[in-house]
Amino acid sequence: MRTQVGIVGAGPAGLLLGRLLERQGIDAVVIERRPADYVLSRIRAGVLEQGSTELIDAAGIGGRMRREGLVHEGIEIAFDDRRTRIDFHGLIGRTVVVYGQTELTRDLMLARTESGAVTVYEAEDVALHGIDGDLPRITYAKDGMAHEVVCDFIAGCDGSHGVSHAMIPAELRVTHERVYPFGWLGVLVDRPPVADELIYAGHERGFALCSMRSATRSRYYVQVGAAERVEDWSDDRFFDELCRRLDPATAARLQTGPSIEKSIARLRSFVAEPMRHGRLLLAGDAAHIVPPTGAKGLNLAIADVAILAEALVEHYRSGSDRGLDGYSERALARVWNAERFSWWMTSLLHRFPGTDSFGRRLQRAEFDHLARSRRAAEVLAENYTGLAL
Ligand code: FAS
Ligand code: PHB
What we know:
The chain contains twelve helices and 20 strands. The chain is an alpha+beta fold. The strands form four sheets. It has an eight-stranded mixed beta sheet, with helices on both faces. It has a six-stranded mixed beta sheet with strand order 8-2-1-12-19-18.
C-alpha cells in the first residue's frame, strides 16, 4: 500500500491528524494494533481546552461535542476546609468543554468511516523502517498476512507504550521523567454530578476530584498509594473515601451508585526529545506524558497534531519544510509549559508521603495565595483553559 502519511495509532492524536490531513486532500493511512471497540473502552480524559474545541470545530467534527458537551466557565478548588472558585470566564474570558475522550474518539472514527479513509485495526507486529530515507515504511501482520505501507512521512501517534518513540536513535534521544508516589483510582457512575463544575480537593487524606461526562454520568477520582490494586477497592470503600475528602455539604449531596468502570492510573511526567527524526514525527503520548491533574494530556496531543498538520500541509502545498524542521522545537515549547502546569497542580493538591509540616504549610500558603490573588487565579485560568494554539 502507498500513502503520503502513515499514522501509527488510532487514539485521538492519530485520528485527529488523519482528519486534518484529509480535509486538506492529503492521504493518510492509520494503523492501530487494537480493535476499535477496545480503543473506545478506555476511559480517559474529560476536559477540552477552548483551543481544542475550536480545532475540533474546524475539523468538521464538532457537531455532537457542541450539542452534548458541557461548557464550563470555572472550577472549584478546595484545600482542607477552604474553597475557592477559579472563574475562567470572569478572569480571562475563556471556557472549557467537558466532553469525554471516548466521545471525541467515537466522532473521529465515524468521520473516518464515512469518508472511506483507510484505518487498519488489529494490526500485529507493527514496525517502522527507513525513517532516515525518503520512503519510510510501516510493516504489520493481519489475518496471517504480511503487509507494508510505503509513506512519505510516518506520524508516531501510538502512545506511551507504542513502538515509535524507540525509533529515535538512542544517541540522539533525551528523556526526562518524574514518577509520582501515588496514582488515581477513577470511577465512572451513572448518577448526576455532585456539582455543576469540577471540584479539585487537596485534603489531608489525599487528593480527590469530582468530574463528570454528562448531566447523568459522573467521573470521580481519589489519590491512592502507588502499590494500590483496584480489586481492593469496593464501590462502598471508594465512595466512603471520596466523601471523607470533600466538604460535608458536598459529601451529603453526592449520589453514589454501581461503578460502570473502575481503574487506577499511575501518575508520571515524561518527555522524550526530539519529537522528530528524519521522516518520523511523534505526537501525543508517544512523546510526552503529564499527570492528569491539569487536564492537559489529551489537549497536548491535540496541540501537537495541530502544529504537525500545519507543517505537513505546508510541505505538500509549497514544498517548504520550514514547519517540519521547526515542529519538534515548537511542539516541545508547549509541552514543557503543560508539564510545568501539571506538575504545579499535582504538587499543590496531592498528599506526598513523607511531607513534613513545613511542606504541608507551603501547600496551604500556595492555595491561600491562589484564593486571594486575582493575578494568581488568572495564571491558573490561562493554563487550564489552554494557551492559544
Ligand atoms: P493514546 O494512548 O490515546 O493512543 C495511542 C494508540 O496507539 C492506542 O489506541 C494504542 O492501542 C495504539 N498503539 C500502541 N502501540 C501501537 C503499535 N505498536 N501499533 C499500532 N498502534 C499502537 N488526559 C487528560 O487530559 N485527562 C485525564 O483525565 C486523563 N486520564 C488518563 C488516564 C489514563 C489511564 C491514561 C493512560 C491517560 C489519561 N490521560 C488523561 C491522557 C490521555 O488522555 C492521553 O493524553 C491521550 O490518550 C493521548 O492520546 P494519544 O496520543 O492518541 O495516545
Ligand atoms: C476527567 O473528567 O476524567 C478529568 C477531568 C479533569 C482532570 C482529570 C480528569 O484534571
